[in-house]
Amino acid sequence: MTSPSDLLIDKAYVAGQWRAAERRFPVTDPATGEVLAEVPDLSADDAREAVAAAEAAWPAWRRLAAKERAALLRGWFERIMAHQEALARLMTREQGKPLAESRGEVGYGASFVEYYAEEAKRVAGETLPGHGADKRILVMREPIGVMAAITPWNFPLAMITRKCAPALAAGCPVVIKPAEATPLTALALARLAEDAGFPAGVINVVTAARPAEIGEVLTTDPRVRKVSFTGSTPVGKRLLAQCAGTVKKASMELGGNAPFIVFDDADLDAAVEGAIASKFRNAGQTCVCTNRFLVQDGVYDAFIDRLAARMAELKVGNGLDEGVLQGPLINDAAVAKVQSHIADALEHGGRLVCGGEPHRLGGTFFQPTLVADVTAEMKVATEETFGPLAPVFRFHEDEEAIAMANATEFGLAAYFYARDYQRIWRTMEGLEYGMVAVNEGLLSTELAPFGGVKESGLGREGSRHGLDEYTELKYVCVGGL
Ligand code: NAD
User: Ligand 1, closest atom to CA 215?
Assistant: First the structure.
């Protein structure tokens, strides 16, 4: 059984072997700058070897009884939960989020493994009436083949399990390319999978500092039949174009520009709590985090006062320290983006209510910031800030809020607070988003289909729909009966 100290791994995982490399890159703690480990910077050839290992493992993996795949997934789930604390500490150190959030992510990430361990047994086809008296139609659901997962740094564990658990359940081997900022959690996950008994080649982790080189292999190699990407919209578009050459099935979980609408009949205390959860979790570095607060005239000043008061309670610091609610941002570029959005908003008439500056702790720590009187001309209206900035827009009529909310090329998550049931229905139906939270600030769960519309992506993760992404339908026409 793996001990917690075994979870800090500095080797990649290919074909069931832990692979070192001469070329390596450092993984640093964003809170302290400390180098936690140096991991292999693998090459395109290594990536091709990982694909070959996955392809070789596929026939046996798909032939395994669904119950046996389910048992392996269940064993992986149990090991992840048994090491929840060690994984959470590792994640906080390489990613920066507060420890309580890391523990939450381990539980959330593990829930996909548990869910798809159950669902593996329910991958069903169907029999349909034939188009002639002597014919029958069978619809078989078969695993698509090798899946390549390219994942971001903001959820180093859950974005991997959300893709790999349904793929593995369906009978597909996987090659994972974790983000260069957070490969350690991915490698720890692979160690726990190895411990659970997954056969060699079924799970591979390719660490690399030059993602484009690995991405090129994973999106163009004909042996990879499915690419599942979570990350920014520009990179997603590029990968999607690369997938076209071999007509690969692709899932894209991309950026967002989530609106959070507060109508004048809302329960303001609940709205403020929802706002804190949705905006400041992971220091505002989540794809579903609120990017724009749209607040109706009647409650505009009251909402801003209460939100600012709650923000003053957000303790900023090293995620490992007791009581910290906001950790550092991932790197200097993230800080620069937040600063540019604040400067642009203030230049165009925004009003700074609190924060606005790098935190006195230095490094990449930043003050929780609230800017009021924001308008559609400002950058924050159209671009994802990905940091602890809460911009507040004012609106008058309900229709205006829905139009403002939809005035973006993104369509991932939207939130709103209201009490009137007609207003609730009108808004729910009017929002062009893949996910809508009503009187709720957190919506991710393995039980629901997660995903976006418009330029926020293609495909869904979680729920039974998440499994369909890793299967193909085979129609068999049985004649001569
Ligand atoms: P990113 O696009 O920079 O990187 C994501 C992954 O792609 C990383 O593993 C990176 O190494 C890799 N990558 C980068 N360039 C590549 C290339 N040319 N070829 C192949 N791979 C490449 O995104 P990020 O900064 O890590 O993550 C933040 C973004 O992810 C935000 O836009 C956020 O909204 C989005 N996100 C979306 C979801 C969702 O479910 N929709 C969830 C989390 C994050």
Answer: 20
